[in-house]
TrEMBL record:
GO annotation (BP), single: protein transport
Organism: Aquicoccus porphyridii
Subunit description: Part of the SecDF-YidC-YajC translocase complex. The SecDF-YidC-YajC translocase forms a supercomplex with SecYEG, called the holo-translocon (HTL).
Subcellular location: Cell membrane
Protein keywords: Cell membrane, Membrane, Protein transport, Translocation, Transmembrane, Transmembrane helix, Transport
SMART domains attached to this UniProt entry: YajC
Family recorded in the similarity comment: Belongs to the YajC family.
Membrane listed as a keyword: yes
GO cellular component annotations of the record: plasma membrane
Name assigned to this protein: Sec translocon accessory complex subunit YajC
């Protein structure tokens, strides 16, 4: 029994190291990205994964947002493709 445990110990340690160095940080990054995307609101300046920089004109419920990339030029963008929020707008005071 001791020999079997001793032979599996390196395998268990490798899995533990992989979990803490690769899997857990990736899950945290994904969770942070989802929170950022859910917090998008009109007026935020964003960068898409394609490199477009624009201002959020409209947030839709179906996983899309409308981004104004130039004056009068609006494009529909899938929310998940937003890679960064450059500046946040302050929420409207009620």
């Amino acid at each position: 029994m001791d020999g079997a445990l001793a032979s599996f110990l390196p395998l268990i340690l490798i899995f533990a190291i992989m979990y803490f160095l690769l899997i857990r940080p990736q899950q945290k990054k994904l969770k942070d990205h989802q929170a950022m995307v859910e917090a998008l609101r009109r007026g935020d300046q964003v960068v898409t994964q394609g490199g477009l920089i624009g201002k959020v004109a409209k947030v839709k419920d179906d996983g899309e947002i409308e981004v104004e990339i130039a004056e009068g030029v609006k494009v529909r963008v899938v929310k998940a493709t937003i890679s960064q929020v450059l500046s946040k707008t302050e929420p409207a005071k009620s």
